[in-house]
Amino acid sequence: xxxxxxxxxxxxxxxxxxxxxxxxxxxxxxxxxxxxxxxxxxxxxxxxxxxxxxxxxxxxxxxxxxxxxxxxxxxxxxxxxxxxxxxxxxxxxxxxxxxxxxxxxxxxxxxxxxxxxxxxxxxxxxxxxxxxxxxxxxxxxxxxxxxxxxxxxxxxxxxxxxxxxxxxxxxxxxxxxxxxxxxxxxxxxxxxxxxxxxxxxxxxxxxxxxxxxxxxxxxxxxxxxxxxxxxxxxxxxxxxxxxxxxxxxxxxxxxxxxxxxxxxxxxxxxxxxxxxxxxxxxxxxxxxxxxxxxxxxxxxxxxxxxxxxxxxxxxxxxxxxxxxxxxxxxxxxxxxxxxx
Length: 340
Known about the structure:
The chain is an alpha/beta fold. The chain folds into 3 domains: 7-64, no CATH class; 66-249, Rossmann fold (3-Layer(aba) Sandwich), CATH 3.40.50.450; 254-336. Helix content is 44%, strand content 15%. It is built from 12 helices and 11 strands. It has helices at residues 7-17, 23-38, 43-63, 85-99, 112-120, 154-163, 175-190, 208-220, 240-249, 274-283, 300-305, 323-336; strands spanning 71-75, 103-106, 125-130, 148-151, 167-170, 198-201, 234-237, 254-260, 263-268, 294-296, 313-317. Strands 4-3-2-1-5-6-7 form a 7-stranded parallel sheet, with helices on both faces. Strand 2 (103-106), helix 5 and strand 3 form a beta-alpha-beta unit. 31% of the residues are buried.
């Protein structure tokens, strides 16, 4: 953002307010707010902006104490009844992941959201609810708990349901569940979100996700509207055990990634041996025209920010459009890593 005559006043204001971290980013937020005023922005647009910013702040503050704990988001319908087999499946998945130290993020309503929180328990549950005229309060598990935030807008709610989580489980639901699942798939397809495990969970004999994948194959992929392999990074299953393995297994050796210019850096929980790295280069040779996968020390931007400097690393000049293959690379890293 270009400098404005108010820059000095904004900086003085931030200093008086005691803002000492990320000063430039906070300055940009304040300057953008002032620019909305001088632009003559319509009142409704200003109300949307103010409300969205306020509720994002509330959500960021709510999540802050739990940033170091892994989280899985569970999507599903508020209309699912307690005697539906999907309810029991959801409770079982949430309970198994909570037992491994994961927190469960979901909406704070009834149905699948309640099932997920019952499975995880109150201490491991985080609720991100949407204010609707026919849902006046959060469910009994998370009501009055500090790990719950209520949001006015679906777009800010979806941001928080996705942003903090390292795994996703979607069970059959209505328009809202499909909206959330399709947005998640879009973020993964376009590389706008880092790779994560995604599970589409049904009950044994269920046809919901089978019908969905058939629609993607027959109506979307066949017309060239999506790639034929776009769903290969997604696990479709009716098994609670397989769903849990998919979420946990994605993080056995792989830890995180970072782009440094054209170089992709994969941070690992455990180092890979020379034989494993050689196998990676053989498997992914068609995607490595600009050089092999190698070990590396933390790169300069990582060192400057203290970004997981303790972890072993791999680096490669990876083409960002190969999003699906990046998922495959991460899975191969986990496969070739040490068996714990």
